[in-house]
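Researcher: Please translate sequence to structure tokens.
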Amino acid sequence: MKIINLFLFGITLFNLTLPAKANPTFSAQSTCQSSVNSVTQQIKNKGVSHVTFEVKKGLANQSNMGISPKRNDVLWIILGADNISNTESYRIKDILYSLVLMNIWANNLANNCGTIAIISFRWYPTDLFIDYYIQENP
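Model: Translation complete:
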């Protein structure tokens, strides 16, 4: 599996939210939820208290070529909220400027969340986002 990074500006729209608890009978969902929880905690440890994950079901292959047909979902990692402190804004900037750190998190999520094709780090309420696309190995 190969993950590539694409730096884009766009507008965020929210509609589906990753459930707080995955069904324990599905170990894949449980592993994915554990990865989401781990990434959330690591982001919070870096000083960002407002972290939200949202899954956009079936949207990954609508306009993107080369993405695995086995993976259909987009995972948004939304950092920030309305009226956050300057300190938290700086922490978000630090994360978004750390392509290595985001790549580590994207790899972790991609390896443990089998339906995710795109991992998108987004700064709310701005229109800044950085996407990592999962491509099949040649």
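Researcher: Any highlights?
Model: Confidence is low (pLDDT under 50) at residues 7-26.
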